[in-house]
């Protein structure tokens, strides 16, 4: 399909749309607990199969993640703990925002739902 001139454009367009959708999904999932960055890298890898700019961006992102990992590995335990606490705070704030917008999830047990409703401003059961 990639070698036929008639279908090459359609193939590239399909890769572009799917890759962009995967990257967009990863961006939406970034503040939530889960594999947001992994999904973004998967979308970039998909785009990189057809686009040189995506190959360069994926290479740059990999280098930055590796540099961050090396930097964090050289830091003391208090700095690592502060980074972990900061990440946990971002996750808690993101979940609080989701609950404030959508309400307390129905699957939570009643005592937990009551606690969440009391803690998160604007949330309802």
UniProtKB/TrEMBL annotation:
Q: Transmembrane ranges? A: 12-32, 38-61, 82-108
Query: Is Membrane there in the keyword field?
Result: yes
Report which superkingdom the organism of origin falls in: Bacteria
What InterPro entries does this protein map onto? CHP02611, Uncharacterised_PGPGW_TM
Pfam families in alphabetical order:
PGPGW (PF09656)
Query: Which keywords appear in this protein's UniProt record, sorted alphabetically?
Result: Membrane, Transmembrane, Transmembrane helix
Give the NCBIfam families listed for this entry: TIGR02611 family protein
UniProt protein name: TIGR02611 family protein
Q: What is the lineage of its organism?
A: Bacteria, Bacillati, Actinomycetota, Actinomycetes, Motilibacterales
């Amino acid at each position: 399909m990639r070698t036929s001139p008639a279908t090459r454009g359609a193939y590239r367009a399909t890769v572009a749309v799917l890759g962009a959708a995967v990257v967009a999904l990863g961006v939406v999932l970034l503040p939530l607990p889960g594999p947001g960055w992994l999904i973004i890298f998967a979308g970039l890898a998909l785009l990189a199969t057809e686009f040189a700019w995506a190959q360069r961006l994926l290479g740059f992102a990999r280098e930055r993640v590796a540099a961050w990992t090396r930097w964090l590995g050289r830091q003391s335990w208090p700095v690592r703990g502060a980074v972990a606490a900061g990440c946990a705070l971002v996750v808690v704030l993101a979940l609080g925002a989701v609950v404030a917008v959508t309400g307390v999830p129905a699957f939570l047990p009643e005592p937990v739902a009551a606690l969440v409703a009391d803690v998160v401003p604007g949330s309802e059961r």
